[in-house]
Amino acid sequence: MNVNQSAPPLPPFGQSQPVYPGYHQSSYGGQPGSTAPPTPYGAYNGPVPGYQQTPPPGVSRAPPSSEAPPASTAQAPCGQAAYGQFGQGDVQNGPSSTVQMQRFPGSQPFGSVPLAPVVSQPTVLQPYGPPPTSAQVTAQLAGMQISGAVAPALPPVGLGYGPPTSLASASGSFPNSGLYGSYPQGQAPPLSQAQGHLGAQPPQRSAPPQASSFTSPASGGPRMPSMTGPLLSGQGFGGPSLSQPNHVSSPPPQALPPGTQMTGPPGPPPPMHSSQQPGYQLQQNGSFGPARGPQPNYGSPYPGAPTFGSQPGPPQPLPPKRLDPDAIPSPIQVIEDDRNNRGSEPFVTGARGQVPPLVTTNFLVKDQGNASPRYIRCTSYNIPCTSDMAKQAQVPLAAVIKPLARLPPEEASPYVVDHGESGPLRCNRCKAYMCPFMQFVEGGRRFQCCFCSCINDVPPQYFQHLDHTGKRVDAYDRPELSLGSYEFLATVDYCKNNKFPSPPAFIFMIDVSYNAIRSGLVRLLCEELKSLIDFLPREGGAEESAIRVGFVTYNKVLHFYNVKSSLAQPQMMVVSDVADMFVPLLDGFLVNVSESRAVITSLLDQIPEMFADTRETETVFAPVIQAGMEALKAAECAGKLFLFHTSLPIAEAPGKLKNRDDRKLINTDKEKTLFQPQTGAYQTLAKECVAQGCCVDLFLFPNQYVDVATLSVVPQLTGGSVYKYACFQVENDQERFLSDLRRDVQKVVGFDAVMRVRTSTGQSWLEKSRRGTKPGRETSGSCDICSPDLIPVASGIRAVDFFGAFYMSNTTDVELAGLDGDKTVTVEFKHDDRLNEESGALLQCALLYTSCAGQRRLRIHNLALNCCTQLADLYRNCETDTLINYMAKFAYRGVLNSPVKTVRDTLITQCAQILACYRKNCASPSSAGQLILPECMKLLPVYLNCVLKSDVLQPGAEVTTDDRAYVRQLVTSMDVAETNVFFYPRLLPLTKSPIESATEPPAVRASEERLSNGDIYLLENGLNLFLWVGASVQQGVVQSLFSVSSFSQITSGLSVLPVLDNPLSKKVRGLIDSLRAQRSRYMKLIVVKQEDKLEMLFKHFLVEDKSLSGGASYVDFLCHMHKEIRQLLS
Ligand SMILES: [Zn+2]
User: Fold this and answer.
1) What is the pLDDT of residues 87-106, one digit of tens each?
2) How far apart are CA 220 and CA 744, in angstroms?
3) Domain harbouring 902, CATH code
4) Separation of 347 CA from ligand 1 center, angstroms?
5) Could you give the number of structural domains in the chain?
6) How far is the CA of 792 from the centre of ligand 1 (A)?
7) Could you tell me which residues are beta bridge partners of residue 933?
8) Alpha carbon of 767 to ligand 1 centroid (Å)
9) Per the domain annotation, does 3 fall within a domain?
10) Would you say residue 667 lies in a domain?
11) 597 and 728 share one domain
12) How far is ligand 1, taken at its centre, from the CA of residue 801, in Å?
């Protein structure tokens, strides 16, 4: 039986394009970490009689022994047990049956808790500071200080060189931490990384003063010829004192007397080792390698590094050297400087090619013709005119686009423009949409397309006179002529089958197998859904959501529910033929919430009881998605499936999986198979889902390996989200799960979407008579409106690669069954041909989608970029955070096809090329021993190192295959702010700043040596949240926060702070709430005590240090990068 109609093909974007509706944020009611109390699930009052026909209890069998351990213990019961223990299913597999369900008498009244309103974060307007100077940062890495000279001034454990103090005690397993779902593994970390170096220092050597490191090249000045190694910097790198205006065009800093100036904003004093640094030593060429020879792990991450043996004269004495961490670029300082300089004034988008403030800066945006950086951020806002330049620089040209980004309340949602039946105005040739860059000519009767230069007629109803500057007099009355972002209402031409869409539907599909029941998940979820369905996304001022809902439960068979409002009780229909899935009912499956509320409530009360005694442990997965998709197809609407799933789908059915986890593959050529889906069935299924506009959100509750790499294929390709709660237990994890669920269900989503990014061809026109003089440069298909004597010359940039959660069936259209306000699409551009400095380059992102109310709309974002003929302009207008977003996504996709080591080497090489190109072409001549970084990219090495040592690219022993696949999948859709904090976590000291201060305390660098044992710190990366407590923190602080009298009484692993009525407690809890509200997923708190075994987990996030998995410390990596650059330059 097949109730489906064939899916109509998506209308190609090239023809009439659909319009994207904008959505209004006002309907968004919830926030993660909202004050809505966790929903306690109602007490279970005993089994309900009368359910005999629902899954029978089956043979009496001991439940599987895969129970999750208590989260706070260090046991490893969630280990990857064999699946053999699971028996065959016990549920009937017979023909479909219809069962009259009865009301569960003991259903608990559910306190419907309205979700908290959006927590707005007012932007604090501060006095406007001077813009950041574009300074050349001359990182003079020279002067690797002799450790002995510096070490005493530093904390005993620094840079990851020293043995982690708690390592010995840390060999136990991790408690269930709530980290993105790691299972306790009980494996000791490799100890090899812990070799100490500080202890083996040679006697201090005296070194020449380094005052010459800034010597002017012109004079051939005081440069020391022998200092071919890194020179000692006279300038601290970390402080703002390094900022130098005009790093390229102004005289090089060398002109300044050594050890002085570098005028810049006042800031912390330069590091003490400046010019009076006592201990420097001459470096021979490339002498880093030998110097750190004893470090077993240094070489391994970079096996591809060029060897330095060929370099002349390796230094004979091999004293351990180290850089002063204060002398290298500090992410914290860069973030602080940008906040101070750019956080006080709105970012006005009028001018072309403006670099926006950093994502870490709180600022308002005024749209004056270019899209807000909340929608589009670019790796560079000034792109090379030629592909040769671009290739030379190796700086990826990419835009991170978040078409439906949520805006702060102070900023207006895009206006919706309605052109009536004629629809949005577009260029006849390239189909670009009307935008502020279009040029009106001939008194306003025609317009020239800014993307392809085609001359188009202005339709009579759109005609308007021009003013003396050639601008339409109504330009400021029309969003599409004055704003960077706006929406058009789409006409029926933009709809599937030339039919306006129906409102979308949500289908909740709940695993009711043994594990789901036993963990309390099903009861918790059903209880929550009773109230959550009142908060489905709405549009504008709509009183209720237009979205219809449906419910399915499943184990190895599927149960559909008829919740038609006219029924006294819900009805269940069982489909056991999972190989040929169909939807057994049409009428009554998808219903309006308010009409069917009583029946839905009854159903949600009954589900936990019906399956309370289940012994069924096997599940299916693909048939569940298939069923949801078929249901949407039958209802002729788009929608979203919410799947709540617990285990590897081993039941006999399409998409059946086997446990193929094999950690032995790590660091082999076959490692990539761990990230690849084990069957192609899910891709095929995803394709069908996309055609139907069926987006899939997956909530996983695994107790062991579930093959996230395969299960996440459909969510990934349909624009959905994956959430993972390893070893889920209601008491420990309900807050996190419910927060995520509430936010996810309430998210405004665009359905059945297609996104296309158009770029200007920057082009010129070629007379036909000259056609053929430049083979391959003409485009075909000139339009009949244009002069017949001219043909366009194809040039400019074009989108060539895409990263994100979507599907593509051709090379240009990004198809998204669903797209929410958190998801980004990263687009890479390549040159077709020359760009023009005068005209710049334009991007137009058009997203056609169906709104939550079923309205078809087009959302348009425009952005104009500058073009340059000087590489220095490229480097001066780059954004490292966006670059890292692109590079991480590029690398994370790369692991599907290449060995992880190859992926890492590629990243390192590219980074070195980028920096070497700058050094060669833009920096002032200087000693080869100097590492010179472009101001805008001075954090590239530290951030790139964080990507390289992330769990996907360099997993630690405690990271499971599923964790890696999960993180890989998450990063794919992250925006720039999310990747920024994910790769370089925020570490906030809590007692240093005054308690009464309302602002967030300034962060410190993510390194153990920044931790004071007398303080407490919060660390967050968007997914994890730690509260670290130093061993000698004041007793009063301990009392105020934990309500215990001493450090030793604090419970390690605590996830909730007691609610105490004192300023410190309020401040810390308020800060935690605030951090959670900033992130798209709920971060579960873990309290970590210094020297406790949990601390190892925490240290994983101190990313400037050497990692237990072998990742280099920041200092080491910077040295390595310097070496690579010098190789390229020599
Ligand atoms: Zn055009």
Assistant:
1) 333 333 333 344 444 433 33
2) 63
3) 1.20.120.730
4) 29
5) 4
6) 10
7) 137
8) 18
9) no
10) yes
11) yes
12) 22
Distance 451 CA to ligand 1 centre (A): 5
Distance 371 CA to ligand 1 centre (A): 19
Distance 867 CA to ligand 1 centre (A): 20
- CA 427 / ligand 1 centre spacing (Å): 5
In a domain, 62, yes or no: no
450 C-alpha vs ligand 1 centroid, how far in Å? 7
Q: In degrees rounded to 5, what are phi and psi of residue 574? A: -100, 130
Q: Which amino acid is at 453?
A: S
Q: For residue 408, give the CATH number of its domain.
A: 2.60.40.1670
Q: Would the pTM count as exceeding 0.70?
A: yes
* CA 692 – CA 772 distance, rounded (Å): 45
Contact 1022, 1083 (CB under 8 A): yes
- CA 854 – ligand 1 centroid, Å: 30
Q: How far is the CA of 446 from the centre of ligand 1 (A)?
A: 13
User: pLDDT, tens digit, for every residue of 24-78?
Assistant: 333 333 333 333 333 333 333 333 333 333 333 333 344 444 333 333 333 333 4
Cα of 759 vs centre of ligand 1, distance in Å, is 10
What is the Å distance from ligand 1's center to 453 Cα?
Answer: 6
Q: Which backbone phi and psi does 393 adopt, to 5 degrees?
A: -75, -30
- Is residue 102 within 8 Å of residue 552, measured between CB atoms? no
217 within a domain of the structure (yes/no): no
Asked if residue 513 and residue 477 are part of one domain, the reply reads no
Least confident of 146-160, 164-178, 406-420: 146-160
The reply to whether 658 and 671 lie within a common domain is: yes
Question: Which CATH number covers residue 525?
Answer: 3.40.50.410
Ligand 1 midpoint to CA 818 (Å): 28
Enclosing domain of residue 851? 365-496+753-768+793-878
**Could you tell me if 605 and 539 lie in one domain?**
yes
CA 805–ligand 1 middle distance (angstroms)? 28
759 and 742 in a single domain? The answer is no
What digits encode the pLDDT tens for the residues 941-979?
Answer: 999 999 999 999 999 888 999 999 999 999 999 999 999
Angstrom distances, CA of residue 329 to CA of 175, 235, 282, 332, 937: 35, 11, 22, 9, 10
Q: Are 866 and 889 members of one domain?
A: no
Show Cβ contacts of residue 260 under 8 Å, excluding neighbours closer than 6 positions.
Answer: none
CA of 19 to the centre of ligand 1 (A): 17
Is there a single domain that holds both residue 1004 and residue 1087?
yes
Residue 626 CA to ligand 1 center (angstroms) comes to 40
| 1010 & 1089 share domain | yes
Q: Which of 938, 1023, 1018 is nearest to 983 (CA)?
A: 1023
CA angle 495, 750, 952 (to 5 degrees): 130
Q: How far is the CA of 705 from the centre of ligand 1 (A)?
A: 51
- Residue where a domain stops, chosen among 844, 878, 912: 878
- At which of 984, 1019, 1034 does a domain end? 984
Looking at this protein, which amino acid is placed at residue 766? L
Q: C-alpha distances in angstroms, 1126 versus 207, 315, 419?
A: 23, 17, 59
Ligand 1 centre to CA of 428 (Å) is: 6
